[in-house]
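Forwarding these from the shared drive since the link keeps breaking.
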Amino acid sequence: MDIYLINGNFQIDGTGDLRILDERQTLIQDIYNRIRTVKGSHFHHPDYGIDLIEFLNSNPDELTLLDMANELQDEIEKDPRVLECEVEIEQELEGIKYIAYIVPIDDAPFSLEIDKQDIKVIAEAREIE
């Protein structure tokens, strides 16, 4: 369990208390923080994070798209609560989008949609083959 934060701001529930996350929500928040953190910006953990925003704002070629998908997958799988992750690339008119299918060790799979606007849970994940 953890405290719910949005952009570093505490979130308050309907009773005025700090909103607390369950285990699943905590994992999602931690993955969000991990992939939104610029690699090298965490003083004590220089290998934590990736350069996602810079990449999503660029005009990458196909090889670079695959490299970023692999980097996303590797970074998500660094979390000890994640059993496995598979990342797919979707190119749309609005830009590049990644779908991360995540299988936690002790919970049901879920998917995250990652694009330059946001990272959000989009659905319960399909089985990873």
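-- next protein --
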Amino acid sequence: MPPALLRLACAALLLLWASSATAHGPTVRVAWSGLQPPALTVRAGTTVHFHNANSSGSPCTVVADDGSFTGPTLGRAEGWHHTFETPGRFDYHLSEQPSAKGRIVVVEP
């Protein structure tokens, strides 16, 4: 195989790998005005992306009410992924603003 073609093939494989490694399911927009969507139903094994959409740039931290997950503190426009493996209902809130609440319902695949 010519070197140029080999480099092109390697670049294509690397791009394909990088895009699959960062792929995620639904996104929850996190802001002081609320969580959008406030409730979400997903299948077990789904990865949900939480995105800090605060226009002020204020940090936020997503925390499960039952303690099953806690995300990192997200700065402006930062995101975090969590994979929900077990069916159930997961209520969560922002630690910086406990009145901002959301719910993820996980169903069998």
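Strands lie at 27-31, 34-36, 39-43, 46-52, 62-64, 79-84, 88-94, 97-107. The chain has one domain: 24-107.

- D.
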